[in-house]
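Appendix B: complex inputs.
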Amino acid sequence: MHAKTDRTVMNKNDKLEFLNIDTSLYQTRISNKFRSRKPYQPADPKIILSFIPGTVLDIFIEPGQNVSRGELLMILDAMKMQNKLKCSMDGKVKSIAVKKGDKVSKGTVLLELE
Amino acid sequence: MPVNKKIRELQEKREKVLLGGGEQAIEKQKAMGKRTARERIMALLDENSFNEYDLFVEHDARDFDMDKKSLPSDGVIIGSGTVYGAPVAIFAQDFTVAGGSLGLMHSRKITKIMDHALKMRMPLIGINDSGGARIQEGVNSLAGYGEIFFRNTISSGVIPQISVILGPCAGGAVYSPALTDFVFVVDNISKMFITGPEVIKTVLGEEISMEDLGGARVHSEITGNAHFFALSEEECFEQIKKLITFIPWNNGQKARMFEPGEPKPEYNINKIVPEDPTLPYDVKDVIRAIVDNSDFFEIMELYAKNIVIGFGRMGGRTTGFVANQPLEMAGVLDVDSSDKAARFIRYCDAFNVPIITLVDLPGYLPGVDQEHAGVIRHGAKVLYAYSEATVPKLTVILRKAYGGGYIAMSSRHLRADFVFAWPSAEIAVMGPEGAANIIFRKEIMSAVDPDSMRKQKVEEYKTKFANPYVAASRGYVDAVIEPSETRKFLMHSIEVSENKDVSMPFKKHGLPPF
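Resulting structure:
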């Protein structure tokens, strides 16, 4: 059948890439969702991230200060709630990445321990 | 001829109310590219078929000076009519009257037409264009929404429910469309969200436009909340009308029969599918090569494109199609495509529509994001939906059917009534490369030239197992057929399934993994 009338012929401009499923490489289109997925990174207990978007209301520690497990680090105002951020381990504050009044989005680095 | 005074009085009363929110408000509505509620109903229904009810309903609110305000028809129009002769109940919110806000009487009009639709077992169409709850009416307005949601749920699976979003639909209001069968949206007009951009900005500090948050494209491509996307209200109405031709009026009936017609010759079924299972093609072409007049009506075209769902007709009978799409993400099953397919399968089952499944998939999409998004739970929906469906289930394995994907896609084991396979079918526990690497690991590792040994073993596996005949020898496949015989076999199978009758053990309801 002539290509012009044969509607089953795929458009040559279709952008095809390879997708690996069970060690076979399939030629196909890749979705935006798959392309923009975040690569997995294991959580680092020494880096404290905001678990919710909000505003830094208060900071109770300083760089260089020794902190112990359960100690209050910051208050994060989010969703009309004052969330207490407590230390998850014994350690020393290496650096603080935010200041009072900062608006932070979810996953922002708040401080780092060592 | 003198007109009776009382009749003239009625005419005058009508005229006043028919103007809705008045000329200025109508002008504003038009400036937004929107039609008025009545224009929409007229555009959707057959000419002169609309009977309006509750034209003179008025609100009864007293607080906040509401007693001084007149809201014609309380901002919503209800009635019944026909679409291509099919009876439908309809409501349309009138944005020109108090922003289409929902108060007690407004909600009572909607629930009245919903009750009517359920009682008369006819489809319900709801046109949403509303700023949300009428704050002045307080908890009465919330009660109104609750009454609507309850009826949406009770009517679900009994009568078809169609939601058309032609304006804002925000906050709690979005849950009525979400509970219905099909949601239609129009570019730049439809807006749906639970919390709007203003709230998101003040609470979370994130700035986003209404369109990017909950516009028609977002719901068609990202969230999967919408089933049909149109560029204009006109196109949207054409889509709704076409959908109505495919579905039955209630769950006690079958869809109307249409004059059958052969598929168009330009869809040459022998030439669509490449032999090499790693090469793509558009599976919609296979569907068009099978259905009457090559007329395939796709649903959720822009969402989870790795699976294709929609309606077509086989010998004049409405049939639902579910097909893996090798052109997109190699046709894998993943969280979104499982969700999309499972819901459609349940729709077909609820409304007596036979399901044809076209299989060509390498399996499930690997990835941390998929596992953490719950691909186990979402993938299970497909197994559940196929297993519980008692409508005729017909399966054609076009090419690959590997592993769990083979089982999930309407296999014999989930009680497909007929399973056909093309000679190009590869029904196996996994793809030849993966399988050979595991089975012949020792031989490959210890070979002088592992690469050529691997190739040899892959070829060996392909010849032995990458075919339809192993499954056919166990009766898991009923017939290996030539592609050109597909329509004939399917038409016959649907014909002989006309009186299919299976019974399931009694239960109040099952527990599908949602």
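The CA atoms of residues 78 and 91 of chain B lie 4 Å apart.
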